[in-house]
Amino acid sequence: MRTDQRKNPRTELNAEIAIKPIGSNVYGAPMLVEIDDVSKNGIGFECDEVLETGSTYEAKLKIWTDEVLDVFLTIVRRIQVGNSYSYGAVFIGMTDVDSGRIETYQTILKMKQVESQS
Predict the structure, then answer these.
(1) DSSP classification of residue 93
(2) Considering only CA atoms, which of 41, 28, 103 is closest in space to residue 71?
(3) Is residue 107 one of the residues assigned to a domain?
(4) How many independent structural domains does the chain possess?
(5) Which long-range contacts (CB under 8 A, 24 or more apart) does 72-81 make?
(6) Residue 40 domain flag
(7) Domain with 78 in it: what CATH number?
(8) Cα separation of 104 and 86, whole Å?
(9) What's the whole-model pTM score?
(10) Which residue ranges of the chain lie beneath pLDDT 70?
(11) Are 88 and 38 in contact (CB under 8 A)?
């Protein structure tokens, strides 16, 4: 049995992400990525591209407010799922303001869930 080693709760998020390797000059078109979840410390996503565990990327993460966060992420997990891959990545150097946006989103979702159960 696998234990959850996440430091912070993850929340589902419908968003877009465009990533490029560190040192590359140009962002490609946004990767075809399905984001599974996000926390203030990391992100889970699926895509067809092979990304190496331990590699670091610059990323532009479009969040629910339509704002784009410029972040760096390091791939910490890759699991092949059929012809695709499931990834876990941690954010590195994310500002407190940006991580606070993610926490605020999680709080709003929890409040809505409580209201819908009332």
Answers:
(1) S
(2) 41
(3) yes
(4) 1
(5) 72/22, 73/19, 73/42, 73/43, 75/51, 76/42, 77/53, 78/50, 78/51, 78/52, 78/53, 81/46
(6) yes
(7) 2.40.10.220
(8) 26
(9) 0.76
(10) 1-16, 23-32
(11) no
